[in-house]
């Protein structure tokens, strides 16, 4: 279940990268951040749908 947490954190960091790249008008940074956001965001959503939300105890 740690996978969904890691994917979620990467997705949030990619969103931050998109905002920061837009402010700096960095086209290559925007492209890479959008790609990362799309891929890891999709993995996050699909992992949550398939395995559910992570729980604190096993």
Automatic annotation (TrEMBL):
Record field: transmembrane: 27-49
Keywords: Membrane, Transmembrane, Transmembrane helix
InterPro entries reported for this sequence: DUF2759 (IPR024490)
One Pfam match: DUF2759
Superkingdom, taxonomy of origin: Bacteria
Protein name: DUF2759 domain-containing protein
The organism of origin for this protein: Parageobacillus thermantarcticus
